[in-house]
Specification:
Blueprint lengths: L1 H10 L5 E3 L4 E8 L2 E10 L4 E7 L9 H14 L4 E5 L4 E9 L11 H27 L1
Helix pairs in contact: 1-3
């Protein structure tokens, strides 16, 4: 699964750094004048690829309750993915994931279909972060 993920990153021309022994990848993503870290992890034993966009700024304590409400209200109506914030340090991120198959729960999808699902999780995440992070900053 990590190899499929790596292939998607190469095919989509996303420059990355490997982490966690090649099972995770960090991508510095930039759109217009905002940049943030995209962290993508293959969790083989669960059959998941998880994608996080980390908000490029920390939420200040005075804004935390309104951002937690934003996370809750926005995530409630989303069909996939969710916003989450760590109230201890103000770290805000958007998480999306896709189930590809695990040793315990085999699937019959092809490698090409798995790569399509992985690419969808990545670009859905990037799109949502691109639209949402500037709104949170206001």
């Amino acid at each position: 699964m990590a190899e499929l993920l790596k292939n998607v990153l190469v095919e989509k021309s996303l420059e990355y750094e490997e982490a966690e022994g090649g099972k995770a990848f960090a991508v510095d993503y930039e759109f217009e004048d905002v940049s943030w870290l995209l962290f993508i992890q293959a969790i083989e034993e669960l059959g998941l690829v998880v994608v996080y966009s980390s908000c490029p700024f920390t939420i200040e304590e005075k804004d935390m309750s309104s951002i937690l409400e934003f996370c809750s209200r926005t995530s409630y109506v989303m069909l996939e993915g969710n916003f989450e914030m760590d109230p201890d340090d103000g770290d805000l991120r958007f998480k999306s994931s896709v189930f590809i198959g695990s040793p315990a729960q085999q699937t019959s999808i092809s490698d090409e279909d798995a790569k399509t699902l992985i690419a969808h999780a990545i670009f859905f995440n990037l799109f949502t972060a691109t639209v949402s992070f500037p709104s949170v900053a206001k």
